Amino acid sequence: MSLDDLKPLEDNLLAQVTAAEDERTLDEVRVAALGKKGVISERMKSLGKMSPDERKEAGPILNSLKARVADAITARKETLENEALNARLAEETVDVTLPPAPLAKGRKHPITQVFEEVEAIFADMGFETREGPDIEDDFHNFTALNFPPGHPAREIHDTFFFEEKENGERMVLRTHTSPVQVRTMMNEKPPIRIIAPGRTFRCDSDQTHTPMFHQVEGLVIDKGTHMGHLKGTLEAFIKAFFEADELKTRFRPHFFPFTEPSAEMDVGYERVDGGLKIGTGDKWMEILGCGMVHPNVLKNCGLDPDEYQGFAFGMGVDRLAMLKYGIPDLRDFFAADTRWLEHYGFAG
Ligand code: PHE
């Protein structure tokens, strides 16, 4: 056997390789040449029947033929793969001028928005923000705030109580953010100027009450703090929050166990084009509770009432949001309806 004998076979196989227009045809050519029963494999098998001398000559010839055909197949395969990829790339062009698919954007909940607005206004007046736990003990939620045990004022709050512990103590879901003023007075030295925003809980549910709601509490403790400071601070806040140029206010005497004297602050309002205009007008709307911190509360928190005085105030954040943004039903705040949020939410 010589190279010349195999030349026609090689030419034929290489021609088939070149002619293969897709990977399947190419694979058929490969099997027909190099597969178990392929022409080259059959030739290799015939080596066994040859004399050692013949084999010595024919072996390398067949091997090199096999290698050339195999290389040609590999090269053709690569070419076909590249062609297929190029064809796909040409076909699947990306039109960069098409508008992108719309992204669902998140929105700020009106309560978050109002918390941020309130914090920003008080921050401008030098107030820092303090937080406390949602689950409180009786001392911080009631006792330190001058609610004596068994006092009917505890009932006003429609408290959610936890089960009694072995020592008879019952934890509560805090009914107001006032426990944060207790924690702050016990842990920090005056002068104190803080607000305490957060979740609060009372067993109540209708159009203007939900079992969970939000409050912002404020507390100022210093030497010589008086009711004029309280009035000035709250009027400045309400004006800034409702963006009112003028503001009519009224402080009505009230009762809270933790303040003395206590008051509710009303602001004047009127209806304009179906909406509420806060600041002027001849109607009154209650907006928050406030007062001078009761001497008993100062004592309970380790402060000497002869040295320090202060004022505190607390307001419903949900109510502020309803008034400012014209939201009629409080319960919608917590319904997790994204269409509602699209309407009332704030682009972040
Ligand atoms: N903690 C009171 C409430 O929830 C609000 C308040 C706070 C009133 C501070 C006066 C002073 O009703």
Q: What keywords describe this structure?
A:
348 residues, alpha+beta, BirA Bifunctional Protein, domain 2, 8-stranded mixed beta sheet, two-stranded antiparallel sheet, 12 helices, 12 strands, 42% helix, 22% strand, binds phenylalanine
Approximately how much beta-strand content do the residues carry? 15-25%
Using the coordinates shown, work out and report the CATH topology of the largest domain.
BirA Bifunctional Protein, domain 2
Bound compounds, please? phenylalanine
User: Can you tell me the CATH class of the largest domain?
Assistant: Alpha Beta
Principal-axes geometry comes out as elongated
Low-confidence runs of at least 5 consecutive residues: none
Which percent bin holds the helix content? 40-55%
Summed over residues and divided by their number, the pLDDT gives a mean of 91
- What string, H for helix and E for strand, traces the elements in order? HHHHEHEEHHEHEEHEEEEHEHHE
* Domain count: 2
| Tally of DSSP helical segments | 12
What Rg is obtained from the alpha carbons, in whole angstroms? 42 Å
Major sheet characteristics: 8 strands, mixed
Calculate the terminal CA-CA distance, rounded to whole Å.
Answer: 84 Å
- The CATH architecture of the largest domain can be named as 2-Layer Sandwich
Q: Determine the structural class based on helices, strands and strand pairing.
A: alpha+beta
Question: What oligomeric state is this?
Answer: single chain
Total E-strand runs: 12
Assign the CATH superfamily of the largest domain: Bira Bifunctional Protein, Domain 2
